Amino acid sequence: MTLINVYTKFPEYVDCVRFLEHLRWEGDPKCPYCLSNNFSVMKLSNRYHCNNCNTAYSVTVNTPFHKTRVDLQKWFYSIHIILNSTETISSRVLAKEINTTKDTAWRIIDQIKRSILDQDELIHKIHEYGKN
Questions:
Q1: In which band, very low, low, confident or very high, does the pLDDT at 37 lie, cut at 50, 70 and 90?
Q2: With contact defined as beta carbons under 8 Å apart, do 97 and 77 qualify?
């Protein structure tokens, strides 16, 4: 898998969001704050409004991707690289692969490692999908 392959599978941000929604919610969005599925769709923003706790949320809340400015495609590729590597990936190597700064790459590596340690199923589901 290459970064180009990821952008081919997920050409737009909305494609990544729909994919994450499928993996995380299986078509039934849940508020990450109160776990309610009583929501309204916020048109044009890829977000939802919880009708119980009155908050807005997206599929990235409580994930490593929350409030990221890095393309989700680059995150998906980074997960693939990190989980398929037999050696530790340095931030400089990842930065070169995904065309970011080394500091951004370090944050991505750190978030992915934390998610793995926390046994976050989402990271493993993304990785499994990338194998196909």
A1: very high
A2: yes
